[in-house]
Design a protein that fits this description.
Mean pLDDT: 89
Strand content: 35-45%
Protein name: DUF1565 domain-containing protein
Structural class: mainly beta
Low-confidence stretches: 1-19, 35-41, 413-421, 423-430
Largest sheet: 16 strands, parallel
Number of helices: 9
Shape: globular
Radius of gyration: 29 Å
Distance between the termini: 88 Å
């Protein structure tokens, strides 16, 4: 056609209507926007990691290491792990996705193993059945030793030590029994680095060889580790379907600052220190967390902001739950079977700082063996509703307590096997684990609609018996609809919803265990 540009000839006809240049420009802008939107979405990649068949240098196919996958990942990408055991950790240092386009690490059931098999070439037999090594770790400190263990024939050997609780002194080499270890210092720690010199010792059974032992050494400090500052921090990350086990420190060690981080369906099993721990100004959410056999179930410090939902904790050593400093923490839909040195401690810093705040809702905590307590201390706030505490003393020595629709009661072991009674450290004729509640003078207490089954109740220096509960209510100016009962077996409408917790929180394999069944009403 004459009189029209080549560009005009290539335009598609739109019926018989005239299309203005302005309309064509709008159409092209819209098309360009859709193209950019589609392109941006299509750039999101799936990065696969296979420790057996991967290659970090390959342009196609799976990578070999998690470290390289994290380096390569961009906003919107998902890192997929094989459901295998990885002898490495996942480190995030200043790694960011974007709002709505997080970087995701999906473990698909993978395990990050913090220990490696013992290298017998590093050990010398110094006496019959006694072995010594000075080369086990490149650096040793008192902090590491406090958390240290060996995995020996599938079991953690702590030698009665834990980082957040009373610990036994290390033995001398000649005092060791078969299956035990110790460390002997060669001198004081270096003042600049805190490193100490010395040697580890292992004792095997008479006539046995070290090569015959199934021993693993925790050589990694964490399973998942975060580090970052206010200027170079982690943000917009999702980490899911992942188990961390046998690091000498934390399963999930979250340092520095982070924002918009979500952990989903994660597990920390038999870690040297905390199952998960937030520090400094970390901010994250957890939905689905299992913590078994760690020194501490959860320990959050600093000015962190954390939220935990669907949590199951048992067999801790030092603390089950430990929240401190100026942070704000939330725990909902949780089950804690407590056997640690301390069950729950909440403590703030000096009064001029922000209070340490813990919100709990639908939480069941049952003391498994020996007396222990929930303690709320200085400059802290416990805001709890629909909480069940069984076999635990409640000590409010400072701060503020808000307690509603909750049950505080004794606990009795059910009829179970003798081995389970040994685990519980009770006999068949043992009395219930009784409960005492103490509210100190300066505590601000707000509460109502609670049910108490107590051995004793103390307000400042005054003790109350069950028949004096009305006087207690009058003096404290609260708890008008609460009751002190001798039998709480038929109490409804308060405490944790255990049926919901069994369905949504406790792993199915745990529910099948006779021991676990015996601990749940």
């Amino acid at each position: 056609m004459q009189g029209k540009s080549d560009n005009a000839q290539t335009q598609p006809s739109i019926g018989t209507h005239h299309v203005s240049p302005e309309s064509r420009a709008g159409t092209w802008c819209y098309a360009l926007f859709m193209l950019l939107l589609f392109t941006g979405t299509s750039l999101a990649r799936d990065i696969h990691v296979d420790p057996d068949n991967g290659n970090d240098a390959a342009q196609e196919g799976p990578l070999k290491t998690i470290r390289q996958a994290i380096r390569n990942a961009q906003p919107g990408d998902t890192i997929h792990l094989q459901p295998k055991v990885y002898h490495e950790y996942a480190g995030f240092y200043g790694k960011r996705g974007e709002p709505g386009k997080p970087i995701t690490l999906d473990g698909h059931g993978a395990t990050l193993e913090g220990s490696d098999p013992l290298d017998i070439t590093q050990w010398n037999e110094v006496k019959p059945d006694l072995y010594r090594s000075e080369q086990l770790l490149p650096a040793v400190s008192d902090a590491i030793l406090q958390r240290w263990f060996f995995v020996w024939n599938g079991k953690m050997v702590h030698m009665g030590r834990t980082s957040k609780g009373p610990s036994q002194e290390l033995k001398q080499p000649e005092e060791l029994k078969a299956g035990e270890w110790t460390f002997v210092k060669a001198g004081p720690a270096d003042e600049k680095s805190s490193q100490i010199k010395g040697a580890f010792y292992l004792k095997v059974s008479p006539g046995a060889q070290l090569s015959e032992q199934q021993i693993s050494v925790p050589v990694r400090s964490a399973g998942v580790q975060f580090g970052g500052s206010k200027d170079n921090y982690n943000a917009h990350l999702v980490i899911r379907n992942l188990t961390c086990t046998h690091p000498y420190n934390d399963g999930f060690n979250i340092h520095g600052h982070c924002e918009d981080v979500l952990f989903e369906n994660i597990q920390a099993i038999e870690c040297g220190d905390d199952g998960i721990s937030a520090h400094e100004t970390a901010e994250y959410k957890v939905d689905g967390f299992v913590s078994i056999g760690n020194s501490t179930g959860i320990c959050d410090t600093g000015a962190s902001r954390t939220s935990y939902n669907r949590v199951y904790i048992r067999d801790c050593l030092g603390f089950d739950l430990f929240f401190l400093d100026t942070g704000r923490y939330e725990l909902t839909n949780a089950v804690v079977l407590s056997s640690a040195v301390r069950t729950l401690m909440l403590t703030g810093r000096a009064e001029e700082t922000e209070p340490c705040t813990l919100t709990m809702k639908n939480v069941f905590i049952r003391r498994v063996r020996g007396k222990n307590e929930v303690r709320v201390s200085r400059n802290s706030i416990l805001d709890a509703s629909h909480v069940t505490l069984m076999g635990l003393n409640f000590q409010a020595t400072g701060g503020e307590v808000r307690l509603f629709d909750s049950l505080i009661a004794g606990a009795t072991a059910r009829q179970i096997e003798e081995a389970e009674y040994e685990y519980l450290n009770v006999s068949r004729s043992a009395d219930p684990l009784t409960t005492e509640m103490s509210i100190w003078k300066d505590v601000k207490w707000t509460g109502d609609r609670n049910r108490y089954q107590l051995q004793s109740l103390r307000l400042d220096r005054t003790f109350f018996a069950p028949q004096d509960f009305a006087t207690f209510q009058q003096q404290i100016g609260q708890e008008q609809e609460s009751q002190w009962l001798s039998d709480v077996s038929r109490v409804t409408g308060c405490g944790a919803d255990l049926s919901k917790l069994k369905q949504t929180v406790i792993p199915e394999r745990e529910l099948k265990s006779p021991r676990i069944q015996s601990l749940l009403p």
